[in-house]
Amino acid sequence: LVSVLSSAIIVYRLPWTWKCSKLLMKFIHAGLNTIAMILAIVSMVAVFEYHNARNIPNMYSLHSWIGLTAVIFYSLQLFLGFAVFLLPFAPVPLRAALMPIHVYSGLTIFATVIATALMGITEKLIFSLKNPAYSASPPEATFVNCLGLLLVIFGALILWMASRSHWKRPPEENAKVLRPIGGTPEGTEAESTMTDGSNADKSDLRINSEAARKQNLKLDEAGQRSTM
To answer: Looking at the domain assignment, is residue 184 inside a domain?
Structure first.
């Protein structure tokens, strides 16, 4: 979840992917999240089987509680992401309304995964290091503590990239200007045929084209900036 989910989060934020089609990036985003979900389920099954084989109690620590909660909410996030943003059945107003929730919940799940990993490695150190103990700061403890610091730094970088506006996929790259019924796109036939139009008519055309462009950017914002 730490590595694959982070890749799914920033796949829209990488500049070299901005020229790819929106549909392709949606499939990549959904595919990475699906892989992370499958690996998370396999890992949880392995943990329960290991505990049962060693007669270790299940679901008693805070690490296990928060980890299971993260997996459950992540599965819901994945299902709703497929149903609303990938399949073409959901109306655009619904996508626009759910997009902030989708982004916020995705980032929250990622932060929860980082916290779960930190609690897990700390719990492992406490249980495994007996002689010398964890409190004596043996090399294993120093190594894992450094790993925890790297996890925090990595998580902070991913959240920073996902929250900065200049890292977002530019909607102008794949946007097509919406045209009214019987109209033409901005800067094409409509302007070329207005040789006899007045300045007021040209001003009206620019205003209408600008309004259509803003409307399209709003719809594109709702459809392509998803972060599961």
So the answer is: no
